[in-house]
Amino acid sequence: MKRSRTLIFLLFLLSFFGAFATNAIIYIRLLYLTSFLIGASWLWVKLSIIKLDLNRHTRSLRDNVGDIYDEHFEISNNNPWYCPWVEVHNESNLPSSAGSRLLIGIKKKEKRSYIARTWLRQRGSFSLGPTTFISRDPLALFQSQKSFPAKSQLVVLPMIVPISSFPNPPGLLPGGKVVRQKALGITPHAAGIREYAPGDALRRIHWQTSARRQKLMVKEFDQDPQSSVWIFLDAQSAVQLSKQDSTLEDDWDNWMLGNKPKFSLPPSTIEYAVTSAASLTHYFIKERRTVGLITSGQSNIVIPADRSTRQEEKILETLAYIQSEGKIPLEELVTVQAGQLMQGSSAVLITPSVRPEIMHAIDILLRRNIRPTVVLLNAESFGGTESSIPLEESLKKINIPVCHVRCGDDLGAALSNF
Predict the structure, then answer these.
(1) Which of 367, 370, 375 lies closest to 395, judged by CA?
(2) Residue 263: is its pLDDT beyond 60?
């Protein structure tokens, strides 16, 4: 592009000065020719892109790590003339995002569409855009571009691995009296009715009472007597480990067959921990258990226990943003929050820490009659120098269930069979 541009402009300057200096016909004709080429090229790039429009949309703005994300691109040529070619550049910050194309021969008033498929490898929030059109002339003298800002955000949730079974948390209270404490969500135990307040779900409205009293009334519920499951996720930066990811970066922009590739988690303790928390949340919600989340990453997070599908969405969306930037050790987090948990509840601690202070956190939970289960990420397998075996043996001596997870393990199998 640079060479052709330099050549044309050198010819223009040569013909310009030659025509004025010698008045030779060859220089005059060359001046007309180069002037025409420059003017035509400039008009080409300006007119071919002026009324090109973009519509990019998708069926969902939520998806999970490891999935293939489909996005529909539609380019409309609203010009009354032919568009020879245009480059479409997808400038999304989504890693390995597809969608960039070179489209050739878009007729007037024609719409050209295609589907871009991206393999989701990183959780978080990503903008779907901006998108830029670039038009160039055949001589590569000029280029013109037109940008479309991002209009939506894609939230990539953690991957959920299938768990066939998980030991019944020993805090389970089979049978038991109804807890006379109001629940935030809907449980099988109705406690009464009250007047409707903004934000109440429509499904909580008691229509017969509302009709009788001529105003909206909603049902209240007591907490379920079955124990809640609290997931403690260790996001302290000081204990996190990772190894270099040797997975080859495949070009999935050219992927067309629709086969979902096998995804391996990055060799990082925080990714294994987040995926474990997400998978256990999905498992317990499916088992109709109430689940809550406690963690301290960029900030302290406590999500009250609930059993609804909305609860799973809330926890997964929170986990999508968790980073290993926490300052509070897991044992301090347990010490602060244990007093707020109902006795008889269960706790699942997910940590790569090998510090003996973890035993202090376990002791606090046991004194509160909260029976813990530990998902222990093997520090050595993630590049650490200290072994997790002494801590695991100490936990087993006091009959605390321990799920030992190594880097590269099938996480679903590890959580199901221990």
Answers:
(1) 375
(2) yes
